Structures
1.
Amino acid sequence: MKRFIGAMVLVAGVLVMTANALSAESAKPAAKPAMSHYLVISPHTPEECLKTLDDAAAMGADQLKLWRWGCASGDHTGYLMVMAANETDALSKVPASVRDKAKAMKVDTFTPAQIKAMHEKKM
């Protein structure tokens, strides 16, 4: 009888430890999505220019300072480099009034070794 009770206590302990481990796994926060660099290009017309700049400023000074604008040289386009999880996330940085015209492209860097490997594959 003592053996049976000892075995039951051991099994119960293992079950409790397993349950605790499983609940700890489910309590872990979801992994963050991988972030990538995106180049966001947001064109607008000369007529839309001031509204676009006002809308960008309304998104906050910290966001506005990330933008580069070609407006003063006649290129009515905003340019932004941003880290984002995906294209949709990158486009969310564009003022809503001109977001439908904007595009976001994932961009990468290359090492000299990667470029050399690309040349070798081409041959």
2.
Amino acid sequence: MRRGFTLVELIIVVIIIGVLGSIAVPQYVAGVERSRAGKARTVMMIISKAEKMRAADNNGAYIACAASANLQANLGSYTEMTDIAADIDWDYSVGIGGGNFTVTATKRAGLANAGETITLSDGGVWGGTFAP
């Protein structure tokens, strides 16, 4: 009666697990990046709505926010900004130009795709360089 597995059988199992892992890990990482980008887009829509509410109270004047920390000070009375300012993946800013604004999310340094951006104009047009 035969007991256990042969060395060849064990090597084949290890190779199969390695091949499956080499396929699954990159897909998992790409999925995580897509979900983080989705979170950033949701936050950017919230910031855009807060900017529009603030402008409605201030004769249509938008306000620039150079960094995530400024968002709470400038737009915090229009929506909850505590979690937005503490985001560990993205840094958010609002730029003003020509009577319009653009919300920008920039991937933080030290992370995959660092420095890449997602933008949202006040007209609802998405752009940027981020592509997970």
